[in-house]
Structures are given as structure tokens and as C-alpha cells.
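Co-fold these.
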Amino acid sequence: MSDAATGTADSSEAATRPKETVRRLVQGDLASLRVVIGLALIWAIFQFENDRFLSAQNLTNLLLQITATGLISIGIVYVLLLGEIDLSVGAVSGLAAAVMAVLNVKHGWNPYLAIAAAVAVGMAIGVLQGSLFSRFAVPSFVVTLAGLLAWQGALLQVLGSTGSINVNDPKITGLTETFYSHTVGWIMAALIVGGYGAVLFLGHRRRAAAGLQAENLTGLIVRFVLVAVVTIVTVNVLNSYHGVPLAVLILLAFVVGMEFVVKRTGFGRHVFAVGGNAEAARRAGIRVNGIRIAVFGIAGTMAAIGGIMAASRLLAVNQNSGGNELLLLAIAGPVIAGTSLFGGRGSVWTALMGALVIGSISNGMDLLALSSAVKFMVTGGVLLLAVLVDAIARNQRSATGRV
Amino acid sequence: MAAGTPLLELEGVSKAFGPVQALDRVDFAVSAGEVVGLVGDNGAGKSTLVKTIAGIHSADTGAIRFEGREVSISRPQDATDLGIATVYQDLALCDNLDVVANLFLGREEVSPGIGTASRQLDEARMEHQTGELLSNLAVTIPSLRSEVGTLSGGQRQQVAVARSLLGEPKVVLLDEPTAALGVAQTAQVLNLIRRLRERELGVVVISHNLVDVFEVADRIFVLRLGQAAGEFAAESTTEEHVVSAITGLGAEGEKQNGREDEERADANGEEGR
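Predicted complex below.
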């Protein structure tokens, strides 16, 4: 470990940047780049096997397919950052959707009220589970496993004897059926690119004003260009089918908003601190249990929102809602994309990237008409591969003194 | 150096855990700009004494005076409010956060302007203040944005000490600051302790390592079986005198060396919480 003064160390770091980048890529600091490469590989393979895979129609479909899982995964990322697990999110998403459907269809509630009630149910369940976990120091694994069973039962109870409720309120189905016109799509692209540029520029100027070493300008420009290109290409692709779907905007807004909360606010900082060293957080005056309860509340809330989107897309809530592999995929996604299972490391973007990877595999195999059997085995293999790569990266880090 | 009233003064402080008398009518004081070395065998009551000052235990009997006023310290927050900072041996740092985040943990600065509404952290200001504090203390860290888990033991110790200074304390308690450090890193930490003294802070250093204590302390306070067993001016005493006070035996070389090695081996386990 170098004992050089701050200034010299910084400049030498700048000099060794290319080498540093390769090391960080291998050791997992740039897990996000790793998952982008993986995704590109998956897309290339499927496109090679079936040239409809990268068509505008299929990509639009893919994005709509991952919306629910991606939203649920956002909550999972928060829980994983604490080093905990929430096994109940699938069941909670189903129960919340059922609450919405029953209130809207059977009791004739205003759709927005029904949605708000469903979100409130999800949040309340999360807060309850978080309180039990932190108050009685029961492992979150067990509390949420009990939740998984109990909320699944509650789902059946709420649905009643029919076992299935069709949702046809246009406000609810519109969540996943609304597409914006080309013009609106391009205006939104301009807002995203311009907003990102403004954030980068203001951050740069603030650092300069505080007399801090400025960030590498090339790096800033590369990041800006990357975001601009991805945005423009995406909007272009979506526009050549039905346009930009509302559901994608909802997912993106939650990803950006929740990433801001976790990376840029005191609350998010405390989530990382509790996940890294709960005792240190406690001694720093952070209300550790409050953070835990809030995080499980967020997980429940995001599960409910994901459940609502799933019901909107399926046009129904049934006994299988939130069941099957939804829970496992929602947890596997962020892990595949680089959020640590051991707490304190990760980002909300992994919810989106992980959902894209898993969604692409599933979508591509459907396109190739492969059976569910193959699909599950391949998805399992990819998850295993991802955690193995992560474990190897961690070993490398500790071997070089980077914990 | 210790002119006038001491900054922190304990008088007749006792603390019992069930039948065990951990502290027995201990008088202890530290003045501004003074480094006091607190030494003693395992179980002598060093940790209990520090935890009593830090508000983790409250004393059964006895008086604590801070700047001449009698105070009661029953919670850690009481000690912090008075201006007493404690750096525990396990440092309580978050390895996954960078130096700036660790320094400001639990007292993050929020941005002015639009940032306030969204509770956005003012990273630039925190980094600026961190840079100033560390350079004032001549602490050398490769980068303020490196994760604390990647730093060496000495650097971590210095970050932990620097962090305790953010609350502008008057007294700093250091629990085994040089345990498990190499020679060069120990020297860095001892230098940092000297700079705390230059800042007119009262510093209490718990240590098993008499060499380090002699290097940095003005006064050495010995505890044995929960009782004060001697107080020495570091300049005018020898290691033999201090060791015999610690062990309660006469100054016999061989025995003491044996004991000291044992203590070093235990040093990591004993103070743990």
C-alpha cells in the first residue's frame, strides 16, 4: 500500500488508467461492463439463431416482459444491499394485484384508488416483515419465507371462489398498453440526454468550485456519448414498432429515482453502511432498525408495483399471480448483474440489467421454441456462472488487499 | 503542562459487574494538550474505565467532572455532547464505503439549493472538508475516494481517529491504537497522536505496548485489579517501574518479559466488544 501523499498518488493513478481499467474489469469493480458484454453475447447468439430476435417488435415485447420483474428486482436490490433476502416479494406482488383487482372490479373502486390501496398493502407487508426481522432479530430468510406462504394463502383468500379476476379497466390495462407517438418519444429522448448532460456538467462544475481535483473529462464525455447513443437507438427501435411504451418509462423512472436515493442521499448512504458494517453504522448514530424496516417497506412497495404491472399486462389476476419462477428470477437478476448477496455492494441498475439478461434468455428460447425444461436449466446455468465470476472476482480482490 | 483544572476528572469511580469489582475508587484525570497512557494487565479495568467515560457503562459511584463541572454520563450520546470522542480498537469503519463517506457517516452534509429538497448529499463539500482535515493532520491516504477496506491498518486507524475529530471533541480516547500495526504504521499513528496534543486535546491512549506508551505519553496511569496502581511522568520513570506497578511484583526482568509477551498475544481478543 502506497504511503505517497494524496496529490502524487492521484496523478500516478491517472497515468496507469488503462491498466487500472483492465484490473477493475477483471476484479469486478466494473461488473456493469461485464454484464453488458454478457448481454451483447446473448443477443448475438439469439440473433444468429433467429433473425427476428432483434426486430423492433420483439425488442418492444422483451421490454414489456421484463417490466414487472425489473420493478420487483429494484426492491430486491435494496434488500440485498443490506445483506438480507426477501423471499416474499413474489407472493406480495400477487396479493397486491389481487387487492387491486378485487377493489376495482368487484367493489367498483376508482382504478387509481385501487392501485394506491394495492401499493399500500405491499408497503404495509414490507414494513411488518422488516419490523419482525429487526425487532426480534429473526433471520430475514425465515420471516419472509413465512411471508411467502402466508401471502400466497391470502392471495387465494382475496380472489375467493372464482380463483381468477379479469381486469379490464382501461386505466389499469393502459399501464402496459399505452404507446407514445414518435414525436413524444423523441422529446423524451432529448429530455433524457439533455438532463444527463446537465447532471454531469453541474457535478463537474461543483467539484471545480470546491477546489477538488476535476474528474477525467474524457471519461465524462464517453459516459455522455454512451447514454446518448443508447437512448437514441432505443427510441428509434421502439418508434419503428408501436412507439415508446409507458411501461418502459415507468420502469426507467423507478430505476433512476431509486438509484438516486441509494447513491446520492443520506438514507441510501446509510443503507450501504448497514449492509457493510451494521455495528459501525449503529455507533455512527444511524438508526439501524429504522433503515432495515424502511428497506423492507421499499421491497414490499416495489413488489406491489411490479404485481400491478404484471396484472395489467396479463389483463387478469389469478391463483398463479406472483407465483412460479417470478420470485427466483427477481432475485437472480440483480445478482447476475453484479449486486452482491453479502450486502454493501451493488446498484439499482443491476435490477434493470439483470431483468434484461434473464428476459432475453427466456424470450430468445421462446422464439426458438425450446421447452421450459431447457429454459430453466439455461437460466440456472447463467445465474451460477454469474455468481462464480463474482466469487472469483472477490477472491482476486482480497488477494490484492481490496476487500 | 497540566496547569489549572484538568479537562476531564474522575474521582472515586467504582463499577461492579455482579461480584466482580471492575473499578474500585479510581481517580483519573487528563488535561488539555496532554497524552495519558492507560496501562494495565488483562482484566485490570482499562476497558471498563474507558467505557465508563464514553458512556457505555455508567459508574456505580464516584464523580465525573468535565472542565470543572460535575457531569453525569449515562449514554454514549452524553459523552459525545460533552466533547468526548472514542476510537475503539475495532475502529467501526465500513469497509465498503470510501474515506469521505466513512468520515461523515451519520452526519452527512446535504446540498444547498435544489439538492436540499431531494436530500442530495453534498459530496464536493464533504470531500473538500475531508481533504483539509487529513492534510492538517498530515494523514496520508492514496485517494479520498478509495474504499476503506483497501487501506492498510495504519491508514484505517488514522481515518478512524480523524473521523472522531469531526465532532470537534476536547477529549479523545484511543483503545489500542497501535495493536497489530507494523513499525512504520505505528510511527504514523504515534505522530498523529502528537498532533492531537498540539491541537490542545486531552488524549487517553490505552495500550499494551509500553514502548509505544513511553514514546508518546506525558503521563502513564497504571490500573491493577480495578484499582489505581501508580502514576508516572513518562520522562522521569523507567519501563521497569511501570511493569512492576502493572504486575504488582518487584522489578524482576524475566517474569515481566514473559508476561508482556502473553499480553501482546491477548491484545486483540481482550478489548473486543
